[in-house]
Every structure is written in C-alpha cells, then in structure tokens.
Task: structure prediction
Amino acid sequence: MTAKASFLEALSSACRGCPELKVRVLTVAPWSETFRLVYGNEDVTNNYLKVFYTLSKCAEQYGTCLEIKMTEKPIFNDTYKVDDRFVTGPYLHCVSKNNQKITAKDFFSLDINDPRKELYGIISKDYCAVWDTAGYILNCRSFYEACCAEGDKIREYTSEQKLAFIRRFCMAVTDTEDR
Result:
C-alpha cells in the first residue's frame, strides 16, 4: 500500500470500472509492537489514512465490497527473496491440519523447482491463515464519514492522534463466526 497519487488513482479507477469488485486488505496494525519491530519507527500514518480513505470512498461511491483487517502478526510480503531457485523469508504462517492453529516458523526456504510445491498456494494459505485470525476490522463506513466530517483538520493531527483516529474505527474481531 502506498499513498502515491498514481496508486490511489489506480485504486479509484479499478473500483469505478468494476462496481462488483471485492477488495480485501490485510495489514499489520500500525500501532502494534509487531509493526515497530518489523518496520521500525517510520511514520506511516498519512499513508494508512490516505489509502483507507480512498478505499472507503470507493466503497461509498461505487459500491465496492471492502474489508480491511489488521493483525498483530508479522506480514513479510515485501521481504521475500526470490533467486534462481529459492524463495526465502523470515516467517511463514501455517495452519495445522490437526488443530487449525497458526504457527510461525522462524525461517523458511522453499525450493521453487520442486514440482510438488506451488509457491502461490503456499503464500495464499499464509495470507488466509493470518486473515482468518486477524484481530481488528476497520468499520469503513464510519471511518469514511468521520474523515469527511473532520476534513483538513486531520492533516494537523500528530502521528499519535492519527493512529488514535484510525484505531477508533477498528473493532476487535472476537466472534469466531465473524472470521
């Protein structure tokens, strides 16, 4: 996710051109300790606000089906290394066939030349496992309405105030039927 104008316009264009589009966003909660450990102290609050606002606006204006979930588990989608033969990354979330609980392996390496392994399926299962157990879901309609009501005042907020603003619209996912 990026707040670059070209990305935000591409999001809007895709939603405008396909009203039955279903968009699911899974991200690390920017207020979490996990976020700090993975991404450091980089201030990304404006990025989150702009992307979430654009997507929420698309849901309101074009009927885009939108779900935004946040987790406190690390998501290392941008740290996978692919070379001639191996895909490596610091974590892989797995769903146990026996007890359906997520486990995180400290390191994994997948031989992509092994025909028994399908990278897309593995990464898809990784994301689905985290999606299904994400701790927060953004109330996109309320978030959008509040953004419209606050207008330019949000730009004057400190980083902490912006995080609190986003968090205000995140509901804890506690009912397993909602997952």
Q: What stands out?
A: The chain is about 40% helix and 20% strand. Residues 45-62 form the longest helix (18 residues).
